[in-house]
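Regression check, fe (iii) ion case 356:
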Amino acid sequence: MFRLSLAATSMAVLAACGQPAQQTAAPEAAAPPAATAPAEGQVLNVYSARHYDSDKALYAKFEADTGIKVNVRESGAPELLETMKAEGEASPADVIIVSDAGALYRFQSEGFTQGVRSDALEAAIPAQLREKDGHWFGLAKRARVIVYDPQLLPAEEVDTYADLAEDRLKGELCVRSSTNIYNLSLLGEFISRNGSEAAEAWAKGVASNFARPPEGGDSAQIEAVAAGQCAAAIVNHYYWVRLATGTTEERMTAAKTSVSFPDQTENGTHINITGAAVSSTSRAPELAVRFIEFLATPEGQTMLTAETKEFPIVAGAPNPEGLEILPGFKQSDFPLSELGAYQAEAQAIFDRAGWN
Ligand code: FE
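Current build output:
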């Protein structure tokens, strides 16, 4: 069914180019449609670990613009990976959208992504934020920051990641579990830059400063700082921005805390991405690329970040409302496709450090 519509489309393209349409073209030999070809009747299956209403509007806009029907399966990244393992080569997934380069690496290392070329994506997305062979593309950016209680700590005591391992913060830190990919990626960059020994010393120092065993997500860490359970926490920036732009109660929570972008005089703050990959099982990789290219337009970027409060990646895309409350900051230039190589070691270090 799908191949028939593809063949019909490409024949129309050939005819439009003034070449004779082949009467007996085999569907298998059909060239992919040009990026601007109409795509009525075609379907794109998106496996997404995101769960935002704004994404529904994003899919609807792509459908309206292209005539391509978007089916979405939403679940956590680990669950989507398990689903794809169960489905194997029969997986209907065309596009995989998950947060954190470390999570994308897991899909890639299990063989569920394929390398694709796109001049538009390569031009729009900095090389640091995409996989070198096109296995995934960063589409929105996040920074791993320190949220702290300015009544308890001067800013200069929490302006580096190294500060968090200092004895003076004994009993003052809240951080989520090390099994979370955000912490694995943060430590991955640390291992790459400073070596395994220094990374383990840092992880042990941080773990010895915990105010409580790791529990809850990033938002829960900010709430714990605001409630006085700890003086500082490691979180992704957007959790704080959502609180700071949220309900009256949420804004009061955020107002009790400040944000530090660590390592401004060092390598810059650790950043990561939400990204998309073309599934290795996709029967329509050219449609999948077209969809990811849409996400990398200023319009797609705006819809992708409006609710999440991530940073757009593509030049010309405006920041979502609320991000103006954060200062500009120096970002780490660490190439995110190198993070995956350190994932297993990062987990082993956290385990040894007692950062559960
Ligand atoms: Fe998150």
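Comparison notes: Residues 1-36 have pLDDT under 50 and may be disordered. The longest strand covers residues 137-148. No diff flagged against the previous build.
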